[in-house]
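Supplementary Methods, section 5.1.

A reviewer requested that the exact input to the structure prediction be made available. We therefore reproduce it here, unchanged from the version used in the analyses.
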Amino acid sequence: MTDVDQATTRRDITDALLKAFERRHDVLDAIFDADDRDSAADAIATLLDTSRQGVDAVLHMSLDQLTKESRRRNQAALDDLNSELTFTLSDRPASGGDSLDLRPFSSTDDADIFAERTAEQGVAGDGSGAPAGELGDEISKAADRVDAEDAVWLVAVDNDQKVGIVFGELSDGIVDVRIWIRPDSRKKGYGVSALRRSRSELAAYFPGVPLTIRAPGATA
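The structure derived from this sequence is encoded token-by-token as follows.
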């Protein structure tokens, strides 16, 4: 996660806490009326118009955070973050990761997005930096590496729309992780969200193997 995205997320959480202070009776009613935690989270998200990260912060809030001193500290922190940042989390809605999923790359169904990536970057999908070969050969070689447990390719999907690809290639005992986001989906936080989700996914595929992240901020 970039420094800007970290600051934006902190601001979103701080703003959610302040909204919860102001509407504490409504928040408590929403929690009391909820059947379970998930329904309580949905109710708070709607009530406070905040992200899932903001909701989690509200649900995990301790009683000592309700004091006037805590509220003053949160307001001061929010003021500082507002002066530091010129946009809100809503400007990069995907960075919260609420709607993004990763699924395995399909040689047949996902050739289109890999073709788009290759046309833009002009290099092979294996991370070597070599010029891209014929599309079918690139995908076939990738499938062979996946079968040999030397690679994992994941497609980033937001509400059934393909927005990017996560490449994990095993080399010299390290997994080289690269993230490519489609041009029309950039600057919305998809790279940040894909990176966050890919860590656990790749750790499951390559247990105990270090990950080297290569995700240029310009394409996130």
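The first strand starts at residue 100 and ends at 104. These observations are discussed further in the main text.
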